[in-house]
Known about the structure:
Layout: H1 2-27, H2 40-49, E1 57-61, H3 67-74, E2 80-85, H4 88-101, E3 107-111, E4 124-127, H5 131-144, E5 150-154, E6 165-169, E7 172-178
Parallel strand pairs: 1-2, 1-4, 2-3, 4-5
Antiparallel strand pairs: 5-7, 6-7
Amino acid sequence: MRVMRRAARTAVFCSLVIAMAVQASAQVPVADVIYIPTPSEVVVAMMEMAHVGQGDVVYDLGSGDGRIVIAAVKDFGAARGVGVEIDPVHVQEARANARRAGVADRVQFLRQDLFTTNLSEATVVALYLLPALNLQLRPKLFAELKPGTRIVSHAFDMGDWAPDDARTVNGRMVYLWTIPR
Ligand SMILES: C[S@@+](CC[C@H](N)C(=O)[O-])C[C@H]1O[C@@H](n2cnc3c(N)ncnc32)[C@H](O)[C@@H]1O
């Protein structure tokens, strides 16, 4: 009898541990794509193709170490930059890079899932994701971005949405679209 009670208690304990582990794992945001940085010459091409300048608010969806929004503000004179990144380690790294670059007052890095971020204030959106993620994002871009907002993507296109411009930079594709007026 005592053995059975101990077995029952063990079973209850194990169930609780499993339930807590499942709940905890459900709360950990999962990245949709791994971190691979965009080379600096491709960042420059993205900013040039999008004609980034004064008055622009540049978003990078999946911002990694922050290089795109930091370059937008520091080297191309954008008013502000917003990086959206799911991985907290990259968010910390990007904030430190912004401080080092002297632009911490004009960029912010949000630890968020890019699919839940409100994009309505962006005038330029940068992407380096995956083909399927670009397609998944397309309706959100059309729903939230103002007419005239530019979208630049490193490597991946938008399916049957023809780009306004497409260039090769050191063997890497860069695409530009504009939200129609
Ligand atoms: C290929 S890297 C690009 C990094 C940076 N944009 C660049 O071009 O150098 C993609 C980034 O997206 C982040 N990421 C993946 N899924 C995400 C999601 N759902 N929401 C926000 N960030 C995400 C990854 O952690 C990674 O840092």
